[in-house]
Specification:
The complex is a heterodimer of chains A (about 800) and B (about 150).
Chain A lengths: L1 H26 L10 E6 L7 E2 L5 E2 L1 H13 L2 E6 L2 H10 L5 E5 L2 H6 E3 L5 E10 L14 E5 L3 H13 L4 E5 L2 H9 L5 E5 H11 L1 E18 L5 H14 L5 H10 L6 H22 L2 H33 L5 E5 L5 E4 L1 H7 L3 H6 L8 H12 L6 E8 L5 E13 L2 E10 L1 H23 L3 E5 L6 E4 L1 H7 L3 H4 L13 H14 L1 E9 L5 E13 L2 E10 L1 H68 L8 H31 L8 E4 H18 L3 E6 L5 E4 L1 H17 L5 E9 L9 E8 L33 H11 L3 E7 L3 E9 L1
Helix pairs in contact in A: 2-8, 2-9, 6-7, 10-11, 19-20, 20-23, 21-22, 22-23
Chain B lengths: L21 E6 L3 H13 L2 E6 L2 H11 L3 E4 L8 H9 L9 E5 L6 H7 L4 E4 L7 H6 L12
Classes of the chains: A alpha+beta (about 800), B alpha/beta (about 150).
Chain lengths: ~800, ~150
């Protein structure tokens, strides 16, 4: 299976190459010969590319090619022997015109000019003694490694060593021979050469190639920068022509010095083998048997080299095919796709056939096609890294980073590109950026003061504008300064306390006072927390300005204190008022007692003497004297009852009136009261009817008060009635709604003046004898009904009234039986 | 007192000195009231001894040994309650009825008077028509039948 793939790959690649090369052959027709001139060429030892052969003459691939070109162009060539280093220096000074076998670098491009068609593309490889355990570049760590001075390998190895952090010791040497000798003699652990030299000389020095291989580098002819490009252009034209012709001196030289046969699989090998055989035959015919043996040895050596090369080639193809990163190879000039690896097929979704039918720009979206063409066109000879978009088979567009460099692919100038899909990374980056921007916006917009400081010393790293606003500094004044420098802490120990607090839970919360710029104090609610940020431990501090809240709290506190004070004052005032009221009440009682006494004393004389005189004890009286004295007596008695009523009502109101509770005969009480009222009724010509139900008998109550109420009501009825009569009815009633006892009811109905509806409300109030304009006709203290109602209530009963103005009234006195 | 001679009360001016009048001690500081009661008692055939204040009343009571004492409560220097207690403190006077005649008509005044040793309590102003009947209830042999 693998074999089939391999064959297919080779076949396809070869066919493509042939097609391209055929085309090129037409274009690059041979050029006319230039002027005859002498070209000074530097020679140094880097077999088989360039070296001095045993007879002391320059030889090698570059020399062969150059000789061929010189022949065509009619140039004379003079050689200057020296080391690689000396050659480069001579070239720089213009002491020679051409230096073969120089890899292109940007730095060298400053000093030298290069031809554009690479002569050889050679991999660099690490060689070591056979016993060495060097398998990867990492095994070079700490080793002494010999490298050609000022070579491209030296630069590459330095870069690689830096990238892998290897700390190896690089020993510059003048040529590869010296290098191999030093490795063989154990002066260094390993050395770097190009693959050509290694293949040819490793065995001779008893060395072995290691799997450590670097990027292939194209090698060119170099000329002084100041000189004309004529020679280089001529070389390019000749080279291009030679490279498309398998029979050219170019391939002949390659065959001669390396036995290279990977370029043109079977035919080349057969031709070369034939050539070797031809040589052998010719040698065997013309020379001695010794010579024959030498040829055989040479043949075997070439076979071995070929085998090695095949092995190498397989290895590199595996490296390409099985690489997990998408890779492609395209023809540098035509952009034609030459090869893609499995990872590419898998990742892009194109079949291999599809991919190989593409040109490079087909992978790019419309808007990038023109630009990538321009960029790719100018890439020759240099490595490139760039970010682009690719369109996959399903139409999706991905962002990739392409790394490419020149590569000779089946002797075609090609570029190999390694494609890294960074779409997801880009998206994440964008998300991260967006998220950072969002957080930055939030950070800045927060009404809370937020800062990030270094926990060791309190240097402000980030602050938002609210933070600055709270502490009174501009952000620029704070960044880079410590909180102590700015004197933000009112007490330095507050920060110490925070740091101590953080060492526990990593969080700290407290209300404290900070000092604003200018010295004013500001209360804040501070929260801080240790957070990891960009790989460092940082202190996040959030502060909230709570001065308004504090003010409000203070106001509430003051208000509360004020209220408490006022309550206390009011309580004290009330206590005083109560004391005053009680004192006034005591004074009233004392006043009433005194008034009662002081009024009774003169009344005693008035009533007493009036009575004595009216009794005739002081002598006989005439009619008129008796009449007038009776008026005095009446007035004195009225005054006395007024005094008694006032005393009664104030006793009731003061709760000083005690009522007794003894059994008494209701019927006889009623008779007694009726007896007292009857003379007055008869005097007015009124009927006084009394009707007592048979079930009325004994009652437990205060008989004196009971009689007082009845007498009062009866006297009233008689007083306010001019015609008709007064009827007293007593009966036993079932319990009133809500009550549990039956009731004794005594109603006193008259045919008197009645009561107006609007007067019902004030009927039972003291000193409210209804003012009808008739008050003078109806004497009374105005306290009677008030006393009656209060007494009735004291006895557990009530007084109700019904009346019709002008027709009469009914007062009903009820008591629980 | 069962061994005491019967006294016949006669209208004033009749057969003077022939009959021993019943003696009443009147302790009253108010002149009008003193005169009023003296007049009434005299008209009803009683002999009246007057005292103007408490100490004098206590002294006269011991000297005269009256049949009845009428005692005002509001008196200068020594009030009626103190006088009642002082009278009751004398064993010789213990059976003499003491009637408080007072204008103290507030709740509790009656009880205070009785507690101090008074036998009866009459509120001022007195009613001349019933006054004599009320005080004679306290006498063994009141001259009620013969009063007008």
């Amino acid at each position: 299976m693998k074999k089939t793939n391999e064959a297919a790959w080779v076949y396809k690649t070869v066919s493509i190459l042939l097609a391209v090369l055929g085309t090129l052959a037409f274009i690059t027709a041979s050029s006319p010969a230039a002027d005859i001139r002498t070209i000074r060429v530097g020679v140094y030892e880097d077999p088989p590319k360039v070296f001095t052969d045993t007879s002391g003459r320059p030889a090698g691939i570059f020399i062969d090619i150059l000789k061929r070109i010189a022949e065509d162009r009619g140039w004379e060539i003079s050689y200057r022997h020296g080391t690689w280093q000396q050659g480069l220096e001579r070239l720089a000074r213009g002491q020679i015109d051409l230096m073969p076998d120089v890899a292109y670098t940007a730095r060298r491009d400053v000093t030298y000019s290069f031809n554009t068609v690479p002569v050889l593309s050679v991999w660099s490889q690490v060689y070591a003694r056979k016993s060495s355990q060097i398998r990867t570049i990492l095994d070079l760590k700490g080793k002494r490694v010999a490298v050609l001075e000022q070579s491209i390998q030296l630069q590459t190895l330095q870069t690689l060593a830096g990238g892998f952090d290897l700390h190896l010791t690089l020993i510059p040497v003048t040529d590869y021979e010296t290098e191999f000798r030093m490795i063989a003699e154990g002066k260094v652990d390993a050395g770097v050469t190009n693959r050509f030299f290694g293949l040819m000389k490793a065995r001779e020095f008893g060395l072995q190639s290691t799997p450590v291989i670097f990027d292939p580098a194209p090698y060119f002819f170099a000329a002084p920068k100041k000189g004309s490009r004529e020679v280089l252009e001529a070389i390019d034209r000749e080279l291009a022509a030679m490279k498309v012709d398998p029979q050219s001196a170019y391939y002949a030289s390659l065959r001669r010095w390396t036995g290279e046969k990977v370029r043109f699989e079977i035919p080349v090998w057969l031709r070369m083998a034939g050539l070797v055989m031809g040589f052998s035959l010719l040698g065997s015919l013309a020379a001695a048997a010794v010579f024959k043996r030498k040829v055989r040895e040479r043949t075997r050596e070439l076979d071995r080299i070929n085998e090695n090369l095949r092995e190498e080639e397989r290895r590199y193809r595996m490296l390409f095919e099985n690489n997990p990163v998408p890779m492609l190879i395209y023809q540098r000039v035509t952009f034609k796709m030459l090869a893609v690896n499995d990872a590419f097929v898998h990742h892009y979704g194109y079949s291999r056939e599809q991919a190989l039918s593409f040109v490079l720009t087909d992978l790019y979206p419309e808007e990038e096609k023109e630009r990538i063409a321009k960029v790719a066109m100018g890439l020759k000879g240099r490595a490139y890294v760039g970010e682009w978009h690719h369109v996959r088979a399903d139409g999706s567009v991905i962002t990739i980073v392409a790394r490419s460099h020149d590569i000779s692919f089946w002797s075609t100038e090609a570029r190999i590109a390694v494609l890294t899909d960074v779409t997801e990374m880009k998206r994440l980056e964008a998300e991260l950026r967006e998220s950072s921007e969002r957080f930055a916006a939030i950070f800045e917009m927060l009404p809370l003061g937020v800062c990030i400081t270094r926990p060791e010393d309190g240097v402000f790293l980030h602050v938002n504008s609210s933070f600055g606003g709270i502490v009174g500094y501009a952000n620029a004044e704070m960044i880079g300064h410590t909180s102590r420098e700015l004197d933000v802490w009112r007490r330095p120990e507050d920060r110490d306390a925070m740091i101590r607090g953080l060492s526990g839970t990593g969080e700290y919360r407290r209300e404290l006072i900070l000092r604003r710029k200018g010295g004013a104090h500001i209360p804040v609610n501070l929260c801080s927390k240790l957070i990891p940020l960009d790989g460092f431990k940082r202190l996040l501090v959030v502060i909230e300005d709570i001065s308004e809240r504090k003010k409000a709290e203070e106001a509430v506190r003051e208000l509360t204190a004020g209220l408490e004070r006022r309550v206390a004052e009011r309580t004290a005032e009330l206590a005083v008022a109560k004391e005053r009221a009680e004192a006034a009440d005591r004074l009233k009682s004392a006043f009433l007692a005194t008034m009662s006494h002081e009024l009774r004393t003169p009344l005693n004389s008035i009533i007493g003497f009036t009575g004595i005189i009216l009794m005739g004890l002081a002598g006989p009286l005439n009619e008129e004297q008796s009449k007038q004295l009776r008026m005095v007596e009446k007035s004195a008695n009225h005054l006395l009852s007024l005094i008694n009523d006032v005393l009664d009502i104030s006793k009731i109101e003061a709760g000083q009136l005690d009522v007794g509770c003894k059994l008494f005969d209701v019927r006889s009480s009623i008779d007694k009261v009726a007896g007292i009222a009857r003379p007055m009724a008869e005097k007015k010509g009124l009927r006084l009817g009394v009707e007592i139900a048979p079930e009325i008998d004994m009652l437990a109550s205060d008989s004196r008060r009971f009689e007082q109420v009845l007498l009062n009501l009866l006297n009233n009825a008689v007083k306010f009635t001019e015609r008709g009569g007064v009827r007293l009815t007593a009966w036993l009633a079932p319990p009133s709604p809500g009550g549990s006892h039956p009731e004794i009811r005594v109603s006193i109905a008259d045919t008197g003046i009645g009561i107006k509806p609007e007067d019902f409300g004030t009927l039972f109030q003291p000193f409210r004898q209804i003012d009808t304009g008739l008050s003078r006709q109806h004497e009374g203290t105005g306290l009677g009904l008030a006393i009656c109602r209060k007494l009735a209530e004291l006895l557990g009963g009530r007084i109700e009234v019904e009346s019709k103005w002008g027709e009469g009234s009914v007062f009903t006195f009820s008591l629980p039986a | 007192m069962g061994g005491r001679k019967r006294i016949h009360l006669l209208p004033a001016g009749l057969r003077k000195g022939e009959i021993m009048k019943a003696k009443v001690l009147l302790i009253e500081d108010n002149e009008q009231n003193r005169y009023l009661m003296n007049f009434l008692l005299d008209k009803h055939g009683y002999a009246v001894v007057e005292a103007f204040d408490g100490p004098q009343g206590v002294k006269l009571a011991a000297e005269e040994l009256p049949r009845l004492i009428l005692l005002d409560i509001q008196l200068p220097t020594m009030d009626g309650y103190a006088v009642a207690r002082a009278l009751r403190a004398n064993p010789a006077l213990e059976n003499i009825p003491i009637i408080a005649v007072t204008s103290y008509a507030m709740a509790g005044d009656r009880e205070k008077a009785l507690a101090a040793g008074c036998t009866g309590y009459i509120e001022k102003p007195i009613n001349p028509a019933t006054f004599m009947a009320r005080i004679e209830r306290y006498l063994d042999n009141p001259p009620t039948e013969s009063s007008p």
